[in-house]
């Protein structure tokens, strides 16, 4: 594979943002007919590297050769014309057009009377068939198929534009196991046709299953290029995070069980809390020092219940008791005032305030609870920002950076700092570890355990059952917008227990 | 020794270049440059060659000269540009400021001719402006109407309200006894400088302090950047939206008083006409994005003065009235182009392209 000529050679790529070097002399070489993974923690520079190759960012130094010719990309169109196609995490197709139209967009078959739609759809079906997608109706609207299928359509589209390089940035993050296998089948077909695939994923199993070579980045620097089959996992992780994997495995053990809570009063006790269309009425007690995991599939109502507890949505039934006192939590302000905080799963749209600094993002919730006209004194603000940035190891350690320029994992840490600054008694964390790398994930999991040990009540919502089982004292199992079970998490409980509970428990009397 | 000296020189060289780059990237720089160029143009081409002259006027107790009248006119722009900055920062827009000026001016003139005490008349016309701003705010925040439509309606309605107040007349209060305090606000002098300009400057500074010494500025920006994320932090975006439109209405009322009190007459169809556009331009020149987010009151204030200076230039140079909008547009466009980051990176970009071309040649060879 390495005896033929590379399609893309990126050499000494450097990209600077005001005040930071996002990339510092990084090399990347892609050969035809290989699957190549960019590996690194969040903030290592993977996304920046991809944006350099797709023409989103201009490079400050270095060269990009495509088939031996030097290229300057002034925009994504230049990169596309050079044969570089991208399928993003969020699919960038037109959901209101048909599948066939999406595949052929800009390459429709033309006749004397404009576009020949019949031929265009035939052509589209040809490409779809090549991908093994002949079961799709090319006339059906794109919105009628699942996100996973849409991604495959996006890949078919990349083939239409005759791409030489196909970039797949986190294509598997929202797919289930079968869908991942479908994707891999198509990736192998595309690879065998001589296209170079650049793949980014946080799932190590997938990396080892599909990739041929790896380029490892750390802190914007090039670390090493290796063959996947010659690199053991612990060595790979070690290179990514710059320390031995043994340090990480410490929190791999299951959490030590919290002492019995008999005789204690719960911090929060809700009865019949629900909202029509979102979540059916549920009862829940959360005690001080306890981690309550919400487990369930996407759409099971786990996020919706978390949002009701915070007042992000207004409940339309149920009672809410806080330390034994009846309260009405109808909006985030009231929740924060009552020492309840919620970190959203939707970091970009509901979490960060992108154009504000890290410092402002940390202080803003505390400021909101104090009121607009009672500014936090500068000294106190400095102390809070300094304390939490250190405790949570936010990188870069500059509070005056805009939060949008931080990596996902560090944005997540800043958001956790924001909620901790309000000194909550109950902290609801919705998917705090999603889409972030293994190092930051371990750090955040540790934070969850530390907070509970200090006496905070923590609700931990995650789609990764492994995490939920490992960190929680109690697990609330959710299914089809119902809370279906509450599992006391002892040594006999495993991921399998939860999967079986979801599979075998009835909702509303229906056979599951 | 010699090498050490050289390296320190190189260091300062880089620092100086870096600063120059930052200076070029700063929106305030180009506003100042525009002001200087416009003043230079006026000085050179003014037929009477007295553009920069300042005389002490014994009657008014202040300085007089073309620049002074420019500052007097800028007071109203400063007011509406300040309100507009806050509104635009929330990703909104207030098209009604010109009409609100007409309403408050009409109210003041009408109340004075009806014999009301001058201070009461001022207070009531300010409250009317505030009320109209509150109506905008309520429609945008509580009902969630689009700011453009809401304030466009208020812009149309405002003219009507002004005409209703004066029964369609262009009320003249110049002969009303006891109206001197209002006249003084618009035409008087303190320390030799125009009262209305100093007052406007004071209000801009007060609003600036209010924004930056409390959390108001950050919260306005936060709502402009991401309203849903702001709500999740406990901020109440509706309250913030209501507030900025109310402030904009109040400041537009102040501008209306400045505009009408200078001649003690309201022109219900001309007072404040097109001024919403000037306010928006001042904000844009000042570097606040129409998409909302970070704002600069200092930038907008300077932008307002640039707008006043452009108008003064048009009069001084005797530009044909048919060509004035074109001249206005030309100056604003040039400023905006000079502010564009792409222009600042042009030098570096050319260099990089040349290097790449050379490299391509080398590879080909």
UniProtKB/TrEMBL annotation, chain A:
MF GO annotations: ATP binding
Entries under InterPro entries matching the protein: AAA+_ATPase, ABC_carbohydrate_import_ATPase, ABC_transporter-like_ATP-bd, ABC_transporter-like_CS
ABC transporter domain mapped to chain residues: 8-244, 262-505
Keyword Protease: no
Keyword Nucleotide-binding belongs to the record: yes
Keywords: ATP-binding, Nucleotide-binding, Repeat, Transport
PROSITE patterns noted in UniProt: ABC_TRANSPORTER_1, ABC_TRANSPORTER_2
One family name in Pfam for this protein: ABC_tran
Regions that span the bilayer: none
Protein name as catalogued: Sugar ABC transporter ATP-binding protein
Source organism per UniProt: Bifidobacterium miconis
TrEMBL record, chain B:
InterPro entries named in the record: ABC_transp_permease (IPR001851)
Protein's membrane topology: Multi-pass membrane protein
Keywords: Cell membrane, Membrane, Transmembrane, Transmembrane helix
Main localization, broad class: membrane
Transmembrane segments: 28-45, 77-98, 118-140, 185-211, 240-259, 279-310, 322-340
One Pfam family of this chain: BPD_transp_2
Keyword Isomerase: no
Keyword match Glycosyltransferase: no
Subcellular locations according to the entry: Cell membrane
PANTHER family in the record: ABC TRANSPORTER PERMEASE PROTEIN YPHD-RELATED-RELATED, GALACTOFURANOSE TRANSPORTER PERMEASE PROTEIN YTFT
Protein name (Swiss-Prot/TrEMBL): ABC transporter permease
């Amino acid at each position: 594979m390495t005896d033929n000529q590379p399609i893309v050679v990126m050499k000494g790529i450097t990209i600077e943002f005001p005040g930071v070097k996002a990339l510092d002399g990084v090399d990347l070489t892609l050969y035809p007919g290989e699957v190549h993974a960019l590996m690194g923690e969040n903030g290592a520079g993977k996304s920046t590297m991809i944006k350099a190759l797709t023409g989103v960012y201009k490079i400050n130094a270095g060269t990009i050769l495509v088939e031996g010719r030097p290229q300057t990309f002034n925009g994504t169109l230049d990169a596309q014309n050079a044969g570089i196609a991208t399928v993003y995490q969020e699919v960038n197709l037109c959901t209101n057009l048909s599948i066939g139209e999406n595949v052929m967009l800009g390459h429709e078959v033309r006749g004397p009377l404009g576009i020949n739609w019949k031929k265009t759809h035939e052509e589209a079906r040809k490409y779809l068939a090549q991908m093994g997608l002949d079961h799709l109706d090319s006339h059906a609207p794109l919105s009628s198929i699942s996100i996973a299928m849409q991604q495959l359509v996006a890949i078919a589209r990349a083939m239409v534009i005759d791409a030489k390089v196909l970039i797949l940035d986190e294509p598997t993050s929202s797919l289930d196991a079968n869908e991942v296998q479908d994707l891999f089948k198509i990736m192998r077909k595309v690879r065998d046709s001589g296209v170079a695939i650049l793949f980014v994923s946080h799932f190590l199993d997938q990396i080892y299953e599909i990739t041929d070579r790896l380029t490892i980045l750390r802190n914007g620097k090039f670390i090493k290029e290796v063959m996947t089959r010659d690199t053991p996992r612990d060595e790979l992780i070690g290179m990514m995070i710059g320390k031995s994997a043994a340090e990480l495995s410490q929190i791999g053990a299951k959490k030590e069980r919290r002492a019995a809570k008999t005789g204690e009063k719960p911090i929060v006790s809700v009865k019949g809390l629900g909202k029509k269309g979102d979540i059916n009425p549920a009862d829940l007690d959360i005690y001080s020092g306890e981690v309550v995991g919400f487990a369930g599939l996407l759409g099971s109502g786990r996020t919706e219940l978390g949002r009701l507890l915070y007042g992000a949505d207004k409940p339309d039934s149920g009672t809410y008791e806080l330390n034994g006192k009846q309260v009405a939590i109808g909006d985030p302000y009231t929740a924060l005032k009552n020492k309840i905080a919620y970190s959203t799963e939707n970091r970009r749209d509901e979490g960060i305030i992108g154009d504000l600094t890290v410092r402002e993002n940390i202080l803003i919730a505390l400021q909101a609870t104090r009121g607009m006209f009672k500014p936090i004194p500068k000294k106190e603000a400095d102390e809070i920002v300094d304390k939490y940035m250190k405790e949570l190891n936010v990188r870069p350690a500059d509070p005056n950076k805009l939060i949008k320029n931080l990596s996902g994992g560090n944005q997540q840490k800043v958001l956790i700092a924001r909620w901790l600054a309000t000194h909550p008694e109950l902290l609801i964390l919705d998917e705090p570890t999603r889409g972030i790398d293994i190092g930051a994930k371990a750090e955040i999991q540790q934070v969850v355990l530390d907070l509970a040990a200090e006496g905070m009540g923590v609700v931990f919502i995650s789609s990764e059952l492994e995490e939920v089982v490992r960190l929680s004292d109690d697990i609330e199992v959710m299914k089809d917008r119902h809370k279906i079970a509450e599992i006391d998490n002892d040594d006999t409980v495993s991921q399998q227990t939860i999967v079986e509970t979801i599979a075998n428990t009835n909702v509303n009397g229906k056979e599951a | 020794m010699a090498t050490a000296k050289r390296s320190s020189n190189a260091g300062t060289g880089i620092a100086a270049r870096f600063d120059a780059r930052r200076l070029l990237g700063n929106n305030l720089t180009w506003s100042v440059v525009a002001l200087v160029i416009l003043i230079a143009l006026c000085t050179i081409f003014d037929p009477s060659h007295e553009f920069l002259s300042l005389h002490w006027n014994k009657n008014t107790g202040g300085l007089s000269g073309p620049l002074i009248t420019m500052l007097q006119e800028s007071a109203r722009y400063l007011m509406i540009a300040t309100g507009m900055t806050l509104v635009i920062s929330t990703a909104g827009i207030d098209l009604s400021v010109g009409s609100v000026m007409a309403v408050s001016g009409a109210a003041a003139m009408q109340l004075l001719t009806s014999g009301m005490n001058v201070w009461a008349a001022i207070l009531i016309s300010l409250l009317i402006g505030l009320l109209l701003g509150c109506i905008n705010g309520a429609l945008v925040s509580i009902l969630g109407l689009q700011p453009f439509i809401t304030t466009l309606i208020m812009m149309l309605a405002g003219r009507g309200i002004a005409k209703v107040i004066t029964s369609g007349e262009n009320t003249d209060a110049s002969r009303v006894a006891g109206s001197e305090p209002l006249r003084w606000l618009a035409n008087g002098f303190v320390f030799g400088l125009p009262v209305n300009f100093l007052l406007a400057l004071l209000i801009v500074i007060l609003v600036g302090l209010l924004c930056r010494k409390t959390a108001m500025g950050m919260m306005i920006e936060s709502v402009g950047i991401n309203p849903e994320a702001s709500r999740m932090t406990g901020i109440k975006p509706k309250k913030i939206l209501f507030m900025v439109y109310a402030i904009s209405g109040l400041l537009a009322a102040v501008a209306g008083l400045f505009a009408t009190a200078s001649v003690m007459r309201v022109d219900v169809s001309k007072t404040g006409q097109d001024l919403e556009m000037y306010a928006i331009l001042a904000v844009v020149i000042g570097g606040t994005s129409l998409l909302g987010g970070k704002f600069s009151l200092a930038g907008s204030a300077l932008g307002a003065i640039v707008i006043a200076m452009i108008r003064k230039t048009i009069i001084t140079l005797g530009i044909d009235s048919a060509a004035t909008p074109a001249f206005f547009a030309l100056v604003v466009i040039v400023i905006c182009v000079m502010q564009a980051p792409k222009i600042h990176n042009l030098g570096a970009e050319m260099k990089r392209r040349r290097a790449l071309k050379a490299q391509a040649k080398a590879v080909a060879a």
